[in-house]
Design goal:
Blueprint lengths: L27 H8 L2 H8 L14 H14 L3 H10 L1 H6 L14 H29 L4 H4 L1 E10 L7 H18 L9 H16 L3 H28 L4 H19 L16 E4 L7 E12 L5 E7 L5 H16 L5 E3 L11 H4 L2 E3 L9 H8 L4 H10 L11 H34 L18
Parallel strand pairs: 1-5, 5-6
Antiparallel strand pairs: 1-3, 2-3, 3-4
Length: 453
């Protein structure tokens, strides 16, 4: 079930204050709340909830508003809930009639909400920021026809993977699972494995490579003995095979890659097996662990109109078609021109069949001075990606679990970037309006069409 969006009752309360009487009605966050299409969001996202079953969840305005605030300020779920209780502007943005002294929801409810709406629902939130950009004049429809496209690595919040730590972690998890299911083991190697990890790290740091490798081999052997011990227990009691299936599969993969560094299948994190190793060729960081993500922004105003995560380490050129389809799906406008780097060679998109021209560096045929200027401006997407990653208090890494968490985080970074850009536009308009008072300098900024204040 789903609670309705809060409505104004018009009744006064002697012991409670209204946020509208506390906040400054000329604040940019107040203006942004008035421009939001909360009714459309409630209508589109209500389909993810059961109509007449279960405990009622939070209203769409509350949950979507918390997600917007979280991405805008770059906070974690716990931080945005704590800030909401203290900030009247946050409460006004989420539609509260009276100032609340309690948490809006428990922080895990935001994670449940993101999983419920999935990638499709989060894309709807990104589409709302595009509508806001059009309303405020931050971006125009003509600008969406010319986009810049680039890929980046969305790093996962995991420990740097080494054979020592992976084998030690796999053995620990298998021992915990065996204790939980009451499966007796010949030996758990808790003390010996911990001691071997310590000695391996010390030896490698002291450049004693041979001794360090012997310790690493011991840790790997301890993992193999625990795996075989559990396999024998599963043979005796077949009903345990399903309980150990996932853990044994990951442990076998880690054991195999520790024996053969060139193994085709690898796991880089026990808790995030979807993590991939991507070589970027950077001097300071040769490898990054996470997944590939694509960002599409307008060529002129640097407004993000598309963002998605890709798994399986696809070639950049093979991702371009899906990115352009997402831009059309979110904005309703089909890009006529896409500017990309040399990594997008072999994209398979032609102007005659797809109606979109892809321009890359060093291209000479059909180039005009205007096209060459837009191609040089393609480099502007690099700082856009940097701001998406680093303008967040939670850091550039992705803390959401699973492949769905990768997709959600890529779109959430774009939502936060767009909202910060829109807020800056509203602030500049309010400043220009204030400077138009008699006796002060009159700036050239004018009110964009469609603004209602």
């Amino acid at each position: 079930m789903l609670r309705e969006n809060p409505e104004r009752t018009g009744q006064e309360d002697l012991f409670r204050a209204r946020p509208v009487s506390i906040v400054d009605m000329k604040h940019e966050l107040v203006k942004l709340a008035g421009l939001m299409d909360w009714g459309g969001l409630a209508k589109d996202l209500a389909g993810f909830y059961c109509a007449d079953n279960g405990r009622p969840g939070g209203s769409i305005r509350l949950m979507a508003g918390l997600c917007f605030l979280k991405d805008m300020k770059g906070l974690s779920d716990e931080e945005v809930c704590a800030a909401w209780r203290e900030n009247p502007y946050f409460q006004y943005f989420c539609g509260e009639e009276y100032f609340q002294h309690r948490l809006p929801v428990e922080p895990p409810s935001l994670s449940i909400f993101r999983k419920r709406i999935g990638e499709k629902g989060v894309e709807r939130l990104l589409a709302e920021t595009v509508e806001l950009g059009l309303k405020t004049g931050t971006v125009t429809k003509n600008e969406i026809e010319n986009v810049n496209v680039d890929t980046t690595v969305q790093e996962k919040a995991i420990r740097f993977p080494t054979d020592t730590q992976l084998c030690h972690k796999a053995r620990e998890e298998l021992v915990k699972a065996a204790a939980r299911l009451k499966v007796p083991l010949r030996q758990t190697y808790v003390r010996k494995s911990k001691q071997a990890v310590l000695l391996a790290n010390r030896c490698m740091a002291a450049r004693q490579v041979e001794r360090g490798r012997r310790m690493i081999k011991k840790i790997r052997n301890y993992l193999g003995r625990v795996i075989r011990d559990i396999e024998r227990a599963c043979e005796k009691t077949p009903h345990l095979q399903g309980a150990f299936q996932a853990e044994l599969a990951k442990a076998r993969t880690i054991f195999a890659q520790a024996l053969n560094p060139k193994a085709a299948e690898k796991i880089y994190s026990w808790h995030a097996p979807e993590t991939e190793c991507i070589a970027k060729g950077k001097v300071h960081k040769k490898y990054e662990f996470g997944c590939k993500a694509s960002i599409a922004s307008t060529n002129k105003s640097n407004f993000i109109v598309g963002a998605m995560a890709h798994h399986g380490k696809p070639y950049d050129g093979h991702t371009l078609r899906t990115v352009l389809e997402q831009v059309k799906r979110l904005t309703g406008i089909k890009p006529r021109e896409a500017n990309a780097d040399l990594g997008y060679r072999g994209h398979g998109i032609t102007k005659e069949k797809d109606g979109c021209e892809v321009i890359r560096p060093r291209q000479k045929r059909g180039m005009t001075p205007a096209k060459r200027k837009r191609q040089r401006r393609r480099a502007a997407i690099e700082p856009v990606i940097g701001h998406c990653k680093n303008d967040r208090k939670v850091g550039p890494r992705n803390w959401l679990a699973g492949k769905q968490g990768d997709s959600t985080n890529a779109i959430a970074m774009a939502i936060g970037f767009n909202l910060r850009k829109i807020l800056r536009k509203i602030f500049l308009w309010l400043l220009a309006r204030w400077l138009r008072w008699p006796g002060l300098i009159r700036p050239t900024l004018l009110q964009p069409a469609g603004w209602v204040f």
